[in-house]
Amino acid sequence: FSVEILIKMAAERLDFFVGDEKYWNMFDMALVAEAIVGLFFEGSKLSFLRIFRVFRLVRVVKVVRSVKALARLRTMIFAILSSFVDLLWAF
Predict the structure, then answer these.
(1) Radius of gyration of the chain (CA)
(2) Which residue, 18, 27, 70, 80, is the most exposed by fewest CB within 10 angstroms?
(3) Could you count the other beta carbons within 10 Å of the beta carbon of residue 12?
């Protein structure tokens, strides 16, 4: 993801921050930052950052939403994402 973000920033320049997909870009940057922080603080008690890894599924949902032929897969992904709310109550 880190390389993807850097290439995308180089290609889009200012549109990366103000373009149509600025919120997705910021979300991707947050995921990359979480992964980098997780590398440095692997042994510490930053387990709440693991929750961000779940949000990587949102990137898949973005692709699935755009393809109408994948309606069944979309239903499964939304069911999985909805179940994460219940899982958070377990922690």
Answers:
(1) 15
(2) 18
(3) 15
| Rounded distance between C-alpha atoms, residue 70 and residue 74, angstroms | 6
pTM given for the model: 0.53
3-class DSSP state for residue 50?
A: helix
> Do 52 and 21 form a contact (C-beta atoms < 8 A)?
no
Judged against a pLDDT cut of 60, whether residue 35 lies above it is answered with yes
Cα dihedral 49, 84, 67, 19, rounded to 10, equals -40
Calculate the CA dihedral of residues 29, 35, 37, 43 and round it to 10 degrees.
170
Range 77-83 contact pairs with CB under 8 angstroms and sequence separation of 24 or more: 81/57
Using the structure block, give the residue that is written with the tokens 């979309």: 74
